[in-house]
Every structure is written in C-alpha cells, then in structure tokens.
Amino acid sequence: MQKQALLSVSDKSNLIEFAQFLEKQNYKILSTGGTLQYLLESGVKATSVGEITNFPEILDGRVKTLHPAVHGGILARRNSKEHMETLEKFNLSTIDVVVVNLYPFFENADKELKMEELVEFIDIGGPTMLRAAAKSFFDVTVITEASDYALVQEQLEQNGETTLELRRELAGKVFNLTSAYDGAISRALLSEKYPSYFNASFKKVMDLRYGENPHQSSAFYVDTTQKGAMKDFVQLGGKELSFNNIRDMDIAWKVANEFTEPAVCAVKHSTPCGVAVDSDIVVAYQKAHDCDPMSIFGGIVAVNQKVTKPLAEKLVEIFLEIVVATDFEKDALEVLSTKKNLRIIQITQPISNKTQIVTVDGGILVQDTDNGFSTDLKTVTEKAPTDSQMKDLIFAQKVIKHVKSNAIVVASGQIALGVGTGQTNRIWAAQHAVERAKEKMEENFPGQNLELVLASEAFFPFRDVVDFAAEKGISAIIQPGGSIKDADSIAAANEHGIAMVTTGMRHFLH
Description:
Elements: E1 4-8, H1 15-24, E2 28-31, H2 33-41, E3 46-48, H3 49-53, H4 68-75, H5 81-89, E4 97-100, H6 105-109, H7 115-118, H8 125-135, E5 141-143, H9 149-159, H10 164-189, E6 202-208, E7 218-223, E8 234-237, H11 243-256, E9 263-268, E10 271-277, H12 281-291, E11 300-307, H13 309-315, E12 322-328, H14 330-336, E13 343-346, E14 355-360, E15 363-368, E16 378-379, H15 387-400, E17 408-412, E18 415-420, H16 426-444, E19 452-456, H17 464-471, E20 474-479, H18 486-496, E21 499-502
Parallel strand pairs: 1-2, 1-4, 2-3, 4-5, 11-12, 12-13, 19-20, 20-21
Antiparallel strand pairs: 6-7, 8-13, 9-10, 9-11, 14-15, 16-21, 17-18, 17-19
Helix pairs in contact: 4-8, 8-10, 12-13, 13-14, 16-17, 17-18
C-alpha cells in the first residue's frame, strides 16, 4: 500500500522541498485549498483531499477534511487487523505523515477585531487533524513547524521511517500548540474574569542564558492574546538579554510611564533606585542619577520619551546594563553603540498588563494588575499641603506602587531622593528612606532648603513613622489610611505641624 502524506499549511517555508522529498520517497501527497494550488504550481503532483472523500469543500472551506476518509486513514491502528480490514472494506488508505499549520488566531487575537471577524480565525479542521495524528503517533508522523522538516527528512532517508521517539516528541508539540491555541480562543470569548480553568497561552521567543542564578535554566515567553510593552520591544544594540534584565526592564518602564511629563527611572535589583521628572529630559536623568549614584551603576535606565544625543552622552558616562526608551535619535544611537555591551531597547507598545500571575508550589495565584491610582485625596490634618508639596506627594505615590513593601519613598522637587523597600516593619523602611534622602540632599543640593515629603504604600499601624518623620524634617505625608489607629497618626501629624493626605487605596507589592 502506497504511503500518504497530508499537507495543509499557512506557513509555506521550505514546503516545496519537503513535498518533493516525500514524492521521491514514494508518498502520495494529499492537500487542500491554497496549499494544494501552491504545490501544483510548483510542480508537485498533489491530490485534492476531495478526491479521497468524494465530497467537495463546502461552507466557504469550513468543511473539507472533517471526513472518515481523512480521519480513518490517520486514526487506524496499523497493528489492528480489525482496523485495517475496516479501511479495506471502505476502500480507504492510511495517512502516515500529517503536516498542518493552524489559522492565524494568535496573530489576530490582540487586534481590535469585531467578534464576527475574529471567529473566522478559529481553526476547526486543522486542530482536529493534528490531534488525531498526535494520538496515532505510534504510526503517524505529525509536523506543525517547518523547522522540523529537516529532522524528519533525515530519519526517512536513513531508515525509511521516523523513530518512535521522534514521533512522540512531535505529537507532544501538537498538544502543546493546540492547548495554547484553545487557551487563546477561550480567553478571547470568555467574559468571566476567573473561569473554572486558567488557560494560559504564551509563546517562547527566546531561551535565556540562565534564570535569576546561573544554576537555574530560563526562557522568555510572550502572551499570544494581549499586547504588552515587554512583548514587542525591539533590541537595537548590545548583548543578549538575561532573565533579570527583562524583569528589571519591565519595572523601570512601568515607573517611567507613570508620568506624562519627561521622566527617568533607574532600577537595580528589581527596585527603583532613582526616579525624577523634569521638563528637560537630560536634567531629569541627572536628578535620577544623583538619587543614588552608587546603585545606578550597572543598573537599568528607562526614559519615557526619545533619547537625544545630549542624553546619550550622559548615559555613557557610567556603566549601565540597559537603556530603554520610546525612540532614539540617530546620533544618540551612535553614541550609545560605543558601549558594545549596552543593551539598547526601544518600546513600541503601551503598558497593557491586565493580569498578574504568581506561582506557588503546586499552583498559581492570579489577580488584576495594580493599575489603580486614587484621585480621592483627602487632607486629614489641620494643616493642608501646599501646591508644591501636593505635587511631590503625588509623584512619590506613583513611584511607591513599584517598590516592594513595606515601602517608603521620600521626595522633593519631583525627585525620589530616598527609597526604603522590603522591610519587615515600616519604621525601618522609613528610617532608611529618610536618612538616604537627607544624605542625598546634603550631597547634591547643599545650602538649599528643600522640603521633603514622604509616601507610604500602606497605612500606619502606629504613630512611630510620623514621629520619626517630624524629627527628620518631613513637611508632608501621603498614605492610604484605613488603620484602626488612624487617629493616632493624624494626631501626631497635627502635633508636629505636618500636613497629611490619605488616598483610600493601598499598593502592597510583596
């Protein structure tokens, strides 16, 4: 019995060469639609699937391979006498190689299409053939990626058939693909935020050298159904990215884009170490740098606008791992490229995270992304903040969303002078942030009587932070409120003549 191969693909890379090879191996080539036409025009003697089903394609091509002549040939167990006699009874032949791509649902899921348009990219026959072939991997070779043609061809040339080991691996690829494909469709159709099953659909775009540490393996996947800043960035220069690079780059970019004004954020070890806003982006960078000149060394810098040549000249004065921006002037790229290892990243998509996923042993936690920012600001003290203080309080509150709790940010003049992060109690975070801010103020702004404001990402359970802040000259405080001891903190602020504003919204980042 002559072996048969069914080819129906959207990705026609190297298809003709592979089909011609199969012909030389005495395979009968079956095909459908555009693939059939492409093969015939290229001189491959392909046969329409309609000739073996004795039924034409109908319903605009929605039904063409959903037929016993196709699926019987794929699913029949070759070692089953009954199965083989059934094929013979109905004059059917086995199909031994299946090469199928799916309709481009992934490529269209994140586009703003009407549902009537999107559903036309849902493939039915393709996944059905792939799943049937994958189930029959003991007998059938199934291919979903053109990159696998060469390995299949090599084994067929050497042995006349593929190994069971390879067929099993290729079958695994099928279910890996179809599960992600179905997951993407499910996410597009469901309105329920937390359905019974969490369907993730992510595609690998690169293997990474290692994870957080050299002994951990790692890879980078992007969401197939949603846009995102980290999904479509463009690397314009520098060496390959690492696990920690991508994670820190994401944080830096999110902080910088909390602001509509020109803003710069430096990140080190997943923590903002310098953030500043200024009408002049070069000045904003210098201010962010001066927040912590030690930590920014070897860090990541994100700029929420185009990098100019003057800014690039400042950036290359120190060692940085990555510079991220919306765009780069040609002259700026030339300057940055003098640092051969500096990774230069252009972000082409807005931040659009909707969901956060955290893994735990044996499960995952899923939540909305913290995209909230309170506009319900209430002055709860006798003294109200001045306009400049309020401006700095809001600035500090935007930064603190991205700082590990317990977190305190001390700011002045739209500069995050002190960042206290990840402490097990709030007073330690306050001490670190305030003392750091005072030190930077003395180093970089000597003789200037700058007003310092303080932001906390959660309420104060005690008055100790307020008392400490007053001792160190803090002029205004912003915090969520909501503690049963709010009155104690408010009373302390009134005693010290500090303005206090509450937001009603906390920003824990554990």
